[in-house]
Amino acid sequence: MHFEVQYNPAHSLATAHLSPGESVRAEASAMVSMSPSLTVETNTGPQGRGGFFTKAKRGLLGGESFFQNVFRASGKAGHVCLAPRLCGSMVVHELSGQRDLLIQGSSYVAAPDSVDINTQFQGFKGFFSGESLFFLKASGTGPVLMNAFGAIEEMELNGEMVVDTGHLVAFESGINYEVTKAAAGWISSFLSGEGLVLRMSGRGKVFIQSRNPSEFGRTVGSLLPARRG
Amino acid sequence: MQYKIEHGPSFAWLKVDLSPGDELQAEAGAMVRQEPQVEMSTHLNAGRHAGIFQKLWAILVAFVRKFIGGETMFVNRFTASQGGQVVVAPSLSGHIVHKMLDASSRLFVQTGSYLASTGAVDTKVRFGGLRTLLGGEGLVLLECSGAGDIWVNSYGGVIPIEVNGSFTVDTGHIVAFDGSLDFRVKSIGGVKSFLFSGEGLVCEFSGQGTIYVQSRNLSALVGWLSPLLPA
Amino acid sequence: MQFEILDSPDFALLQLRMDTGDEVVAESGAMVAQDGQISVKTNVRGGLMGAAKRKLLGGESLFQNTFVAQADGQRLYLAAPSEGDMQSRDLGPGEEFFLTSGAYVAHIGKELQIDTKFGGVKGFFSGVGLFMLRIVGPGRVFYGSYGALHSVEIGAEGYVVDTGHIVGFTPGLSYKVRPFNGFKGLFFSGEGLVAEFQGEGTVFAQTRDAASLASFLHPFRPVQRGE
Fold first, then answer.
1. B216 strand-pairing partners
2. Domain residues of chain A, as ranges?
3. Which residue of B has its CA nearest to C188?
4. Fewest beta carbons within 10 Å, which of A169, C32, C43, C132?
5. Which chains touch A (3 or more CB pairs under 8 A)?
6. Which of residues 101-120 of B touch A (CB under 8 A)?
7. Where does chain A have alpha helices with state H?
8. Tens digits of pLDDT across chain A (229 residues)
9. Distance of alpha carbon C128 from alpha carbon A205, whole angstroms
10. Contact predicate C50/C68, CB 8 Å
């Protein structure tokens, strides 16, 4: 199977083309349209490990549900079109079995069974709602479809970089990261608007998105009518 | 100081290479990534030459807006004693426009559109009336003057419109405009239209100068989404 | 009258150049900017009085604005509230087009009919307050999307589309609405519904859906304080 991405960078749509017998796992709410001949099974766990997600769900950005569907082409070829919740791009990273990819929970979209997805929970809740870090580890071989809020920059890290947590999409394993406050004190970190940042060091690919979902959420959310709780 | 606007026009970010002695001021929360040697300090954006009353007023405004939503008026200042790179981005989708101001320029920028500035650019808050203090479509403007660079962001695409006569813009669609233009905030077509026409407030410009118009509007987004939200 | 859709597909903006007497009707709230010599008249959209009972999609109101140019060379800029694309469809006399109510932006042509009493599309948007418009030419209708506009030619196999991603479709298609594989949307009724199309025609889909954006923003909303 392969992914075809259109309408980057703002309104990306990814089409997973499946030959007979092939399947792809994707978040349930990501489906836009599909061939009627595909069968769909609903799983509530990620590949490789089940049950963790009900606990993790509460800490996820924006109430990310992470219920996975398996779309399968049985008799004939077919396709399923997928899209994320926010505007932005999608990118495919090809895993070759050499280096795993650590993906921010809300950035993962879909992958075939040859890619193993495991949770690697990093339970840091910042002071802003939704500012928690949650990583998935993708290993194995095959394409991994990820989304970015905004445009995506694929950077080759060689040294050190400080990255705002909301702008991090994914990075290759082997790169070290340390979660720290943006500024020296808690109050200045809060006022600076930056909250938590990641000090990254090492060599490898780092994927960065040019918009921050939490910043967007705060900017718009504060203007929306109040909710009951 | 060198800068580059990348990923435009839809999700532009501003990449700045600081030399020793340079200072970049950016709205709070805008940092994407920076080299570790770049230093960041947080300040209240009361204007560079603010006296005690202007500072108090700015604190009050920041306090009120923090509760009712909108720009908080805190800014971060980035310096690098040995040089370094910092990347900043706005919170909404759209583009970034750079303007070079000199000592005699005056640029009005809608507060939500201010991204960053350098040098001696001074930003003073100006209100279009009491209604604007409460947020929404009211016109809260930053009057920017002084020599230096300023970067503004748009929600959606940005179109520079040359005005020579009269031109009307929905207030939520204003990014920035030349200080040479006269402007008046009003509701479109009188009270009845204000209630029914969907366009809340508009700004009537007259004279000669450039207006930067954005093709999307935060209030329209809120109005579009609100009925879809559960209780 | 000339028109151009700028910045498609990311943040489409409709630019019109109107001469004296030219008229455009637009959804209230669509006006971005205009030259000084265009008059604006607000009126109730015909046929919508029955819709007053229905919960209407935000930005979609009972009212529309008619813009009339009082001089030559007047510029008018119109946009949809959502981040996305805009297209137009030129309809011949009697030619139909079905459009989601939230997607309508504007139209040119005094004889163009917008039928909102059209109830033939049950089940698409249960509980969400969207309804389908039946547009009949002659005239040109401008419609916007959340996300890019992705058109699909329906073939013999048919096609399944999530209802939140439907913008419009041409006549000649039939459809069945059903829950998507038992998946009940987490936040909204209407989420988790799909339409299975059969027949011959084109379905215009959008690559984002408003309910997903609303569910993303929900945790960022201020919390009501108890009395």
1. none
2. 2-221
3. B230
4. C43
5. B, C
6. 112
7. 53-57, 186-192, 213-221
8. 999 999 988 999 999 999 999 999 987 778 999 999 998 887 654 443 333 343 344 334 333 445 678 899 988 999 999 999 899 999 999 999 899 999 988 899 999 989 988 876 554 544 444 456 678 889 999 999 999 999 999 999 999 999 998 899 999 999 998 888 777 666 666 666 777 788 999 999 999 999 999 889 988 988 888 887 6
9. 43
10. no
**Two tokens, residue C48:** 């919508």
Pairwise CA distance, residues A136 & A103, whole Å: 5
Specify the pTM: 0.86
H-type alpha helices, chain B? 52-68, 130-133, 191-196, 218-225
Query: C159 touching B, CB under 8 A?
Result: no
Length of chain C: 227
In A36-181, alpha helices (H)? 53-57
Residue B116 in any domain: the answer is yes
| Per-residue pLDDT at B4 exceeds 50 | yes
From CA B28, how far away is CA B42, in angstroms rounded? 8
CATH architecture of A2-221: 4-Layer Sandwich (3.60)
Nearest-10 crossing angle of helices C210-217, A213-221: 90
On chain C, the residues whose CB falls within 8 A of the CB of B66 are none
Token output for C57: 């999609």
What ranges in C107-209 are assigned the alpha helix state H?
Answer: none
Peptide bond into B90 cis (omega under 30): no
Name the neighbours of B, counting chains with at least 3 Cβ pairs within 8 A: A, C
Q: Is this prediction's ipTM beyond 0.90?
A: no
Residue in chain B lying closest to A214 (CA):
B91
Structure token digits, residue B196: 């029914």
Shortest Cα–Cα distance, C161 to chain A (Å): 4
Q: Which residues pair with A31 in a beta bridge?
A: A82
Distance from CA of A118 to the nearest CA of B (A): 27
Å between B90 CA and nearest CA of chain C: 16
Q: How many domains does chain B have?
A: 1
Q: Which fold has domain C2-218?
A: Double-stranded beta-helix (3.60.160)
Interchain CB contact of C47 with B (< 8 Å): no
Using alpha carbons, select from A134, A215, A120, A193 the residue that is nearest to residue A169. A134
Query: Sign of the CA dihedral B199, B200, B206, B208?
Result: negative
Nearest beta carbon to residue A162 from set B36, B68, B72? B36
CATH code: domain of residue B149: 3.60.160.10
Asked if residue C138 has a cis previous peptide bond (ω within 30° of 0), the answer is yes
Helix (H, G, I), strand (E, B) or coil at C14: strand
Q: Which residues of B203-212 are buried (b: 16+ CB within 10 A; e: fewer)?
A: bebbeebebb
Tokens standing for B15?
């990449």
**Tokens 């720290």 sit on residue:** A180
- Asked if A161 and B28 come within 8 Å (Cβ–Cβ), the reply is no
B135 — contact with chain A (CB < 8 Å)? yes
| Matching residue, tokens 């009336």 | B129
